[in-house]
Amino acid sequence: EVHQILLAAPPKFRRDNNATLWKRYLRFSRLAQDPTLIACPRCDELCPSPSTAKKDESSYTTQDEEFPSAVMTCQACQHIFCRYHGDTHDITRQSCREYMKNSTQIQESVSVLERCTKPCSTCGCRLVKHAGC
């Protein structure tokens, strides 16, 4: 239903009225037509997913059953990024599986720190409950 609304622009909706709104409309209609498009985190250009894009001879192979075809290259700015996590990790150096493992470990550490410490009433630094500033 929403898909059909996006594809059928109202007759009074013209490109002359508001250029920014028109660009947004075109972007959303492209996304509605092809939901596999992914926005580049650097330039915000819509990039085709690796399964639909032309295969390049990239040396970055992070084949993973959980995260297939993770390496994306923006055709507009040549930025290399992760299809699933954007720029949160360097896909050329760290696989998605490694990133998720590290992310989970960090979340667990933060959880332990929050559970075992309290903020200092003066400076806000995390302290063991019986210690002072």
Sequence-ordered SSE layout with sheet pairings:
Blueprint: H1 2-7, H2 19-33, E1 38-39, E2 46-47, E3 71-73, E4 80-82, H3 96-116, E5 117-119, E6 126-128
Antiparallel strand pairs: 1-2, 3-4, 5-6
Distance between the termini: 59 Å
Overall 3D geometry? elongated
| Mean pLDDT score | 75
The number of helical elements comes to 3
Strand order of the biggest β-sheet: 1-2
The proportion of residues forming helix, as a percent range, comes to: 25-40%
Detail the poorly predicted runs: 1-6, 53-62
- What would you report as the Rg, rounded to the nearest angstrom? 22 Å
**Secondary structure: number of strands:** 6
Largest sheet properties: 2 strands, antiparallel
- Report the sheet-strand fraction: 5-15%
Write down the secondary-structure element order.
HHEEEEHEE
Sheet/helix structural class: alpha+beta
Overview of this structure, please?
The protein has 133 residues and is of the alpha+beta class. Helix content is 32%, strand content 12%. A hairpin with a 6-residue loop joins strand 1 and strand 2. The longest helix has 21 residues.
Tell me briefly what this model is.
This protein has 133 residues and is of the alpha+beta class.
Key terms for this structure?
133 residues, alpha+beta, two-stranded antiparallel ribbon, 32% helix, 12% strand, disordered N terminus
